[in-house]
Structure formats: C-alpha cells, structure tokens
Amino acid sequence: MLFEFDAEQRLWQDTVHKAVLKECPPTLVRAVADAGADPSPLWRVYADLGWTELTDPADAVELAIVLEELGRATDPTPYLATLTQFGPLAPGYADPDQSGAAVHTGITATPEGDGWVLDGTARHVLDGDRADLLAVVTDAGVFVVPASEATAVRTPAFDPVLHLADVTLAQVRVGAGARTAADPERARHIALTGMALTMVGACRRALDLVLDHVRTRHQFDAPIGSFQAVQHKAADMHVALERARALAYFAALTVAEDDPRRRIAASMAKASAGECQSVVFRNAVQLFGAMGHTWENDLQFAVKRAKAGELMLGGAAEHRALITEAQLAGEVS
C-alpha cells in the first residue's frame, strides 16, 4: 500500500484544484447562500468533467482528491451524497447525470406479494430534498426508489448551502428489481471516509484564510503572524489537519484495495476529522477576532461545512468509542 501520490495522482490533484477554483469560487457559494442561486449548472459541470463517474472502488483515491477539493470550496451541489452515500448503496443504479441520496434509518419494509411496502420517515437526510433517486436501507435490504415517490421537506442546517431534509415514504410499493445487492456496512465505511475528506478540505480552507489574515493584519507595527501565541495556534491547526488528512487518505486506500482494516480506518478518519474541526473552528475564529464572526467573512463557510460534517454519521466521540471497543476485542493490531 503506497502512501504517496504517484505522478498521475499529483496531476489529477492539480487538475481538480484548478477546475474547482474556476467553477466553484467563493462568489458562487455566497450567491447560493445569500440569494438562493441555483447550483445545478455546477453539477452539470462535474458530470461533463467525468467526476460523477468515479464509482469504482479502484477510483477511491481519485474520488478522495475530488472530495477534499470540494470540501475546501464548500461545494453547494449534491456530489458528496451522490458519490459517497447513494452510489455505494446502489451498485448498477448510478447514473452520471442523476443525483442521489441515502436514507439510512427510519424506513421499514413489509413483504407484500412479490414485492415490499416501504413506510416511515427518515430525518436529516443529506440532499434528500433534491435527489433524483433514493437508496433506502431497511432490515429487508436496500431499495432504490425514485425521489418522486417520497415526500421531502428541507430542514434548517448550520451550513447555509447544505441541504438536509426529512424524507417520508408512505406505503410506497416496490418490486423485487428495486432491491440492490449492496453491503450497507461497506457503504457506511465509504460514506464515513467521504465525510472525513470533505471536513479535511473545509479545514484546509479555514487554515489558508487564517494564514493570509495573520500575514497581512498588523498590530504594534508588526504582522500578527509574527507573534508567538498566534504561531502556536496556527501550528496546532496545521498538526491537527495533517493528521486528519493522512487518516482520511489511508481510509480511502483501504476502500480502493478492499483492505479488511477498512472499518477501523473509516472510524479513525471520521474521529480525527472531528477533532481537527474542533481545533480549527476555535483557533480560526479567535485569530480573525471580531471579523471571524461576521457574515461578510468567507471563513464562515469553511468552518460551518466542517462543523456540519462532525454532526453527521457519528461524531468524534462515537467513533473513538468504536475504535476502543475494537481494540479491546483484539481487532486492532
């Protein structure tokens, strides 16, 4: 297992970074947050670039690079939900031109004839209100349902460009062909890894903004970045970020190689990303001073995306507990 990008991956990283800078600038994110601008043309761009086709597990590292850059840009499209939550639950159903969302809990499946009846409500479904297809996890298996069969109501979120929704399926009948052969546990590992990478990208953006600020902000005729206390906080952010980034890419590698350590790696990545966002959130806002609390400052989008990621798919404390249980059970060498 290699832990450094090869030449092709470095080229891919540079290509993705430049494309995201061009297609998803901070002005677009602010337009979505402030004026409700439609991000669907951006989704079309991702599809045209081929980014929505990264569904093969062998492409996990390439997908990870895209997710980090989109996290850094506070991507307002349903890319994260589609590629890391819906896609792994719906092998063979993914369409590069359609978005998807995963309904992980709250739905029951009752046998009826040669099919099932799906019923229930799932809360806080990522992009559940704007997906074309839904992958619904039940005790009877995973079913792919057209979003038009469900009722979705968007709910307020800490991140102003993030879509969360309460999704209700009321006596929706599906046939045997709607059930997929997905492994929900494996799909969860991919979802955790994707969320961790998104959080890492957001934290990178916050650190970049902080470093630019402390280099240009002067007090006592000196840039505040020259003060030791400021340097210590920036260093803490950098160390937390590098640890979280390394673990997130390790988790992506375990997905790509179907490594049995995937379950622990995914939890480690999510826990480390959660701890990272806590350090970055606290220090970034403090180093910006009062400016860090203003709507006009783009720092808010980065820290809100990272903080929202901590609240989804289990927080750092939950995943640390899972890792501890695995260690006590002898599953971690």
UniProtKB/TrEMBL annotation:
Q: Which Pfam families match?
A: Acyl-CoA_dh_1
- Matches recorded under InterPro entries: Acyl-CoA_Oxase/DH_mid-dom_sf, AcylCo_DH-like_C, AcylCo_DH/oxidase_C, AcylCoA_DH/ox_N_sf, AcylCoA_DH/oxidase_NM_dom_sf
Question: Which cofactors does the annotated protein need, by name?
Answer: FAD
Task: Report domain Acyl-CoA dehydrogenase/oxidase C-terminal positions.
Answer: 194-326
The UniProt keywords, alphabetically, are: FAD, Flavoprotein, Oxidoreductase
| Keyword Nucleotide-binding applies | no
Asked if the Swiss-Prot or TrEMBL record annotates the protein with the keyword Transmembrane helix, the reply is no
Which CDD domains does the protein's record reference?
ACAD
Query: What protein family is recorded?
Result: Belongs to the acyl-CoA dehydrogenase family.
The UniProt entry, under PANTHER family, shows:
ACYL-COA DEHYDROGENASE, ACYL-COA DEHYDROGENASE FADE28
Protein name, as recorded = Acyl-CoA dehydrogenase family protein
Task: State the organism named in the record.
Answer: Streptomyces cylindrosporus
